[in-house]
Amino acid sequence: MIEARELTKRYGDKTAVDGVSFEVMPGTVTGFLGPNGAGKSTTMRMIVGLDRPTAGAVTVNGKPYAAHGAPLREVGVLLDAKAVHTGRSAYQHLRAMAATHGIPTRRVREVIDMTGLDRVADRRVGGFSLGMGQRLGIAAALLGDPQTLILDEPVNGLDPEGVKWVRTMVRHLAGEGRTVFISSHLMSEMAQTADHLLVIGRGRIITAGPLEEVIATARQATVRVVTPRSGELAELLTDRGATVTTVAPGQLEVAELTSAEIGDLAADRGLPLHELTPLSASLEDAYLSLTRDEVEYRSETMTQGASR
Amino acid sequence: MTTHTADPTDAAPRVAVKPVSFTRVLHSEWIKLWSLRSTYWTVLATLAAMVLIAVMLGVASMVEEGAAGPDGQMAIGMGYSFAQVVVAVLGVLTITGEYTTGMIRSTFAAVPTRLPALAAKAVLVAGVGFLLGVVGVTLSYVASYPLLGFDGAASLSDPEVQRIFWGSGLYLAGVGLFGLAIGAIIRHTAGAVTLILGVLLMLSTMWQLLMMTSDWFTKSYPYLPSTAGERIASPDVSGVVADGPQALAPWTGFGVFMIYVAITFLAAAVLLRRRDA
Asked: Is the pTM of this model over 0.90?
């Protein structure tokens, strides 16, 4: 159980996390979704006491992370794959981490086997691929056999095989009844792993809840209408509060009215319809519509910057 | 995977996890220290530098016989000046190596109160520095003895000579701690190394130049970190230059040096607690 209350982090005059409150419930896989720079990593670092909140507080299992006598038993954390000294072997890194909590070497061997690192465990971490580094990070997070795992962008930059491995691992861990708090900037990734979503943009929580609910609210259903008298119909629908986009001559995309409403309105006026198709937004579209106003640098600003 | 010693209750954790304690953090830091190649290089380089200086001075004493040549005390009492460079770097690397690689986040995630990790590093750096000093002087003595001969070599029963043995260890322990504290404040290897070597090696030269401008520099010269600290490790030079700055007594000098180290450490501890990792 992770509880954040009014959690805020400012760097100078820039606010990275802005009064965020949320709960990560036990036994769930909660996806922490947001564009890059939205404040996901900062929030996660504050949970485990690496960054000090400017205001607000966050507790893990009822206490601040640092107040736990054996924090690695409460929470396992993968913040970034390369939080490891490059000159040390994976085995020695895990052994040193384990020693702080008196965790036996047997457990170090166990997590090495679980993450498939046995062949490279004695090599220095500096030569590891990103995928191997990610496995080592997860191995370290599992050392204390914690009920809660925090994984920051665990599939970021991985090849398809690595992505598949992380996904399988997360499902396996969740299957064991662990709480997993996992961040990503990819909606599709979250849809495959999470059952709860916490969507963040520009340091603020935009929406939170069960995955299907969040997606349903975010999906703005549109209707494709094909009619020879598109001008008249567009005017009519706009008067009724719909948003109408002309996609092609004679073809409209209508938002905020159902296909039934559009059909009835057209029939009342005697306007012929050649096609009336409800369109459901893709996951990515849903996500984009959620975070549209919250992305830090929009494409427009980038174009402006380039032409300067 | 299966263990029969653990209680097979659902809620009970299957892995034996104990609370973080200073002894456990010390064990962790011990593993970290000796699982890096740089540690072994540092140890070897320190000992080699000290022995080399002793041998060179031994050879010089053979070439230049008489009072003008270096004596046995110098042969064992000069090695620290080179060894301190390596030990300072070891102290710095112990912490900046973690900041530059990102390891510090793993360290602080495991020991979120942070100070035990710094304290454990301090114990190890000081211990290694002390042993290097004492072992280095011993090796220097053995290596230069054949060159100096019985009459030339320092007398082991002389309290001044004994002080050089222990003092070299103490000074190098202090230098290691100084490096660690500066490393914890600066957090970058290059910057921290430059700063500590500047303080240990260049500050006194700068002061010597500035002495011409003001009497204040002459008076404060003995209190510089390096000039004060190295008194414990070097042969007595009191009254060598009648008109120059008066060197502090060995233990007074070391005390002054450790005050600098303690203040730097305090600043490092405060910053370590406050700053984001």
From this structure: no
